[in-house]
Each structure stands twice: as C-alpha cells, then as structure tokens.
Amino acid sequence: MRPIGVFIPSIFVLYEFIRKDVGLKHKIKYVAAFAVAVGLVITPWLVRNYIVFGEPVFSTNGGYVFYVNNNDYAVGTWSDPFKYPDSPMLKYKTEDGFDELAIHKLGNQLAKEWIMKNPKRFIELAFLRIANSYWYRTEDIMWALTIGVNQWHPITSKAVKLQKLLYRPFYIVLFAFIIYALIRFIRHRKIDFTTFILLIFLYFNAMMFVLEGNSRYVFPLHPIYTMGVSIVIYNVAKKLLPKRFWAILS
C-alpha cells in the first residue's frame, strides 16, 4: 500500500485552520468530520495489517521506496534494489516476491544511515527526483500505452514527444503560479484557493523530494494544477487583451 494520498485530508484541515473567514467552531467540526472519515477508511487496513504481520503496520512500502531512492546506486527515480551489487535485500527475496515487513524495516534503516553519511548526494538526488517528475521522465504516458511486460504500443515514441511538447510549457506556467501563490501567502498573507493548490503542491513535492520522483505521481494532480495554470493565463490575458474583449465575454 502507498499511503501518501491518505494524508490529503490533513491538507484540507490545515487549509481550513489558516483561513481567516472561517470561525473556530466550524473549524473544529471540520476536523472532527475528517478525523472520523479517515478513521473509518484506515482502520480496516490497519487491522488487516496487524493480522497479517503481527504488529501495527501502516504500510510496508515506505522503507522499500525510501531505500531505492537513497543509496549509492539511486538514479532519481525507481530502480531494482535486488539488482544492486551485493544488495542487502537479496536475503529477503522469495519465489513469490519478498518479505515485505523485513524489507520495509531494513530499507528505512539503510536509507537513514546513507543520508546521514551522504547529505550532499541526498540533496542532489532530491532535486533530480523533482526534475525527473516534471521534466525528464515520461512514465505516465508510457505505462498508459503498455501492451505487455516491457512492451509498448507502436505509437508510444510519438506520444512521448507530444507529451513533452504539451507538458513542459504547462509545468513552466505551473511553477510560475506556485511562485505567485507563495508571494501572496508569505508577503501579503492572502489565503484563498490559490493557497490550497500551493499546499497540495508542497505536500506532494516534499514527498518526492525525499522519496521517489516519477511523472506518474504528478499526473493525478493535473486537474488541481490546471486550475492554478488557468489563473495565471487568465490574469496575463486580462492585462494583454483589450478591455472590449472582456466586455464581450461578460
């Protein structure tokens, strides 16, 4: 299980709490409602994990991902840890896969130790993960066109080129919006929907900064990011286009 998305409600809660136009009573009700909803969703999974693993485990994927992206052979995106030279994880590999809990614990331990010993390389990989997620890698469209194990549809190469052609300008405008939202929040203390988009962006990018960079993790956020991009385009167009144009639209 990848639990990153489970914590999105916490962003809603934070957003509600920093809003100035919402009373404390409403905020408390909002938090309570989210706590109950999240509890109802997560509890069955926690119970299941306790039955399977014999201890309270939220996810067994975290340590694996943490290690894959923070070691001497890390490349800023996913790589197979079982193919690393003298991989410490090989001893936990099984015919059907691997010992999830053992890999989770070992991965957490090894990744933390590696970061402490290699802080400079960790920072380099962190920025590479962000760059891979938004600029260099195209796993989202590639895996959408998968037709077999390591086999892709003949149009994949053309689709990848089209994706880069469309996505890169989109992301440039997105990062312009993020800077705009940061300035509004930090300098002018403006808290509105742009702040919510900013919080979503910061949350997921913080995860990718430490864990795995992958365009597939950015793609599901496009509906939210598109609203931010639209705000930038609208404001720029409003300044550049004549007033009579907007009068016609209104």
UniProtKB/TrEMBL annotation:
It is found in: Cell membrane. Keywords: Cell membrane, Glycosyltransferase, Membrane, Transferase, Transmembrane, Transmembrane helix. It is a multi-pass membrane protein. One of its GO terms (biological process) is lipopolysaccharide biosynthetic process. One of its GO terms (cellular component) is plasma membrane. GO terms for molecular function: pentosyltransferase activity. PANTHER family: MANNOSYLTRANSFERASE YKCB-RELATED (PTHR33908), MEMBRANE PROTEIN (PTHR33908:SF11). This is Membrane protein.
